[in-house]
Amino acid sequence: MFQDSSRCIVIVGAQWGDEGKGKITDVLAEQATLVARYQGGANAGHTVLVDGEEFILHLIPSGAIVPSVKCVLGNGVVIDPWTLLEEIDELEARGIEIAERLIVSRRAHLVLPYHRLLDGARESLRGDAKIGTTKRGIGPAYRDKVSRTGVRVCELEDLSNCAGLVRAACAAANGLLASWGLEDRADPEQIMAELESIAPRIRALAGDSGATLLEELHGDGRVLLEGAQGSLLDVDHGTYPFVTSSNTTAGAAAAGVGIGPTLIDGVLGIVKAYTTRVGSGPLPTELEGHEADRLRKLGAEFGATTGRPRRPGWYDGAVVRHSAAVNGLTALAVTKLDVLDTFDEIRLGVGYTLDGAPLEAFPVRASELERVVPVYETAGGWGADTGQARAWGDLPAGARDYLERIEANAGVPIRYVSVGSARDQIVRAAIPRGA
Ligand code: IMP
After folding, report:
1. Quick one: pLDDT at residue 431?
2. Quick one: angle between helices 188-205 and 159-179, nearest 10?
3. pLDDT-based confidence at residue 305 (cuts at 50, 70, 90)
4. Which of 10, 40, 201, 432 has CB atoms 3.0–4.6 Å from 253's, for a disulfide?
5. Structure confidence at residue 237 (pLDDT)
6. Residues 404-422, mean pLDDT to the nearest whole number
7. Dist CA 379 CA 247 (whole Å)
């Protein structure tokens, strides 16, 4: 992905998350010197498999598994400090030294216990209108950020001032919980006691994400900006209100780490060879019954953060075209192709109709997206194991045909194809074909 002149690449999920960004980031991290996250928090679950060992990362960038790579959590990330320290300790217990090469933006906002309380409470009050959040406190933390009542990492440098902010935030949260008729309450003194005990460790990681990236880019560095969730979960461009609370798309990457957009050279969109979604909201190509169970089982489609079963569907070209437009995708990585190896027939969504007429623009309203009817092309299966393929020519003709249809429909060249969860199960076939 890094060409001679390119130094900074954004990696985004081009569907509803869980596209395999963790694996592709890990593969590309071998060519990178620094990997930064720019949004989201511990709602993410990025799985990386190295030499048969599985790592699930929620906050720390997926590049962490490559020992030489520096890792950054940008100002746009919301950070649960206890989850962060747990993740560091777990990695270090497994022999991956990370604390020395991790920088956490002093501008990033903290996710504190009252955010989790509010997230869970709000979801339970929504009843059937649930968003299906991960209950990690993400929405309430971003709400405090834009309401200008948040607590940032830099507040841990002055704990008496921090205590004032936490007390005010707890009073507001407790007022809300009481008004909803709930008994749970946040205890500011307990939160401060717990924060005080971890503050020295967090302060030791704190730095300036923008300055760190600029130094890297002005030197010989190569930087990956790793998106979390997917483009259809973007708070503006996704299927609102069934979205997360941040801009997941590539436009947010520069702002979320503190550099200018002119430094970004390319945007790699990650798409699964089919579609999945966790939580509520429209999913036009959704499968039901036996076919859904089969795809879920073959693809091990269970959430890495919550363990929830994911909702599977056929590949949806309308979704990926929307993503290509809003992200300015310059290349695609198609993941989990091997999951389709045993299907006799594969369907490929190429567009939608609404009320009998073809739909050109991607629907803005979730209620409209609920009503679209996908237009499918049918592809024959390839009936062969793709897990051993390492070059484009190793793939069966049927699989190449399927990928070429995806490429033509998306209008974006395929640069990588992932054919299994191991690090080496990757086809880097597209060099003459892709960006
Ligand atoms: P939240 O981000 O926890 O507020 O959840 C909002 C929506 O985004 C829910 O539908 C979640 O299931 C979904 N979501 C959040 N993070 C991820 C992720 O990393 N992968 C897939 N879906 C996610």
Report:
1. 43
2. 130
3. confident
4. 10
5. 98
6. 96
7. 34
Give the tokens for residue 72. Answer: 């950054």
Specify the residue for token string 């550099």.
Answer: 259
Distance between CA atoms of residues 357 and 349, nearest Å: 16
Instruction: Report pLDDT digits (tens) over 88-106.
Output: 999 999 999 999 999 999 9
Indicate the pLDDT class of residue 435, thresholds 50, 70 and 90: very low
Pairing type for strands 109-110 and 78-79 reads parallel
Q: Tell whether ligand 1 has an atom less than 6 A from the beta carbon of residue 249.
A: no
Q: What is the pLDDT of residues 231-273, one digit of tens each?
A: 999 999 999 999 999 999 999 999 999 999 999 999 999 999 9
385 CA distance to ligand 1 middle (Å) = 32
Residue 324 has pLDDT above 80, yes or no: yes
**Is the C-beta atom of 17 inside 6 A of ligand 1?**
yes
Query: For residue 18, which atom of ligand 1 is closest to its CA?
Result: 20
| DSSP letter for each residue of 100-138 | GGEEEETTSEEP-HHHHHHHHHHHHHHGGG-----SSSH
Does the Cβ of 43 fall within 6 Å of ligand 1? yes
Q: To the nearest whole percent, how much of the chain has pLDDT over 90?
A: 90
Q: Is the CB of 39 under 6 A from ligand 1?
A: no
For a substitution probing ligand 1, which of 43, 122, 302, 310 has the most ligand atoms within 8 Å of its CB? 43
Note every long-range contact of 217-221, with CB atoms under 8 Å and residues 24 or more positions apart, other chains counting. 217/7, 217/8, 217/259, 217/263, 220/33, 221/7, 221/33, 221/34
Residue of the CA atom closest to atom 9 of ligand 1: 133
Atom of ligand 1 nearest to the CA of 44: 19
DSSP run (H or E) holding 378? strand 373-380
3-class SS of residue 5 = coil
Nearest protein Cα to ligand 1, atom 1: 133
Distance from C-alpha of 396 to C-alpha of 406, rounded to nearest angstrom: 16
Cβ 136 under 6 angstroms from ligand 1? yes
Q: DSSP of 72-105, one letter per residue?
A: EE-TTSEE-HHHHHHHHHHHHHTT---GGGEEEE
Known catalytic residue at 18: yes
Residue 238 to residue 245: CA distance in whole angstroms? 10
